[in-house]
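Problem: given the chain below (442 residues), write out its structure.
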Amino acid sequence: MASSQVDERGAAGAERVTQREKAPGRDGICSSFASSFLRPQMSTPTHQPEKPVHPPQRTEAARLPASADAFSQDQHLRIDSTLADIQRMHRQLSDFLRRPALKQLAALAGGDYFLHAEISTTSEDSADGFVFDYIGKRLSFTRPFLWALSQAKQRLGATWEEFLRLFLLHEGYHIGQRLTGYSYRGIGRAGFVLEGIDYDADTFSIQGCLQWRRDKEQGYVRDKGEVGVLAEIVRTVLGGISAFDEFEGRFPLRELPERRLRRYLIWHMQHARAASAPKGLPLREFGLGRRVIVEAPGIPLRVEERSGTLRSVALLSELSRASELEIAIYTNSRLFRSTPGQALEVLEALRENDLDRVKKGFFALFFSMGALAPWLEQSTKRPGNASAAAVQSPAPKAPTAGVPAGVISNTITGDNANVSSIGHQTVHMVVRRPNLTGTEAE
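Solution.
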């Protein structure tokens, strides 16, 4: 899917960067939620470049030692503490998913392969940062990658545990998608396919975390509203992305691979949508599972070659010379296009990592594009004003038998199988595959 889902990878020092560029794999950590924030992913541009191809520019990663031997004793202690956090969260998630009522959710998270996986370190020089041998039920992290996670922990603060839940659920969902350590090599060359895979995995992990919150924080969820809690979870996704960019000293962002920019834009938009929703909005009307495509045409670009594949990089430091800048969105079978001024406000705020300013920038888009947040259009609709008619959400469906509230069901729905409807009592996430061992082509 050519969505805004971006899967980026971080460097483990200059030597590791050089080694990774020689490998034909995903140019980064294998199908990872957390590690998708670490390193620029390969992407083939969708247009013919106007400028000559540039060699890849290195991002400074001096704070991340090139090998495990380069860590100090204090750094090793922090690495061990980070690993212990992951092990503890995996145990908690496994206990949670073993409940009979959550059987289907557990199956979508990888079933026994996920529930019984052993979490450990590895001395293997993995270009990906970790290895998930799911058949062997072993998830092993390199120490440089754990050190990078320990830096993210400092920046994420109270949302650290939720970040880990998102990461683990994302990785477990990849098992059913058939994107694993046994099949990922070279997939980075199919950039748009990878974006679609990761968007679905992100959506599953977010909905899984919402189910966790429903169970563990019932009173808070009731008071805040499910969509309000959803906004908090999506903000954690954004915090995870920016934590690694901050760790590598990238703010204000001067440039960003287009795929990574699309990832930022999709989740910033979803965060703004959730933040704009009234407390009592039924989750089904939010439509998190609907596939979304977001791009920002008009940004100055350069094109570089990496491992024999071209990728386009957005030059955010040169927004002032952008030509006919806009944010283009396609979702729910509708096209939405911003004005140049609206796009500039969002992108300048994104460049500075000002989440609240980005949110307000999207609020301005919603004001002129009511169908992106139809609850806003409905709240300002005047009696008898037919031109302001809001997009009506489909009537809620009866809960699927045997599926507990919030569980994402493995349902196939014909022509519209790429659009999920999320029920207030039952979340129906359409997964275009008949089971956990086969993937149906989009």
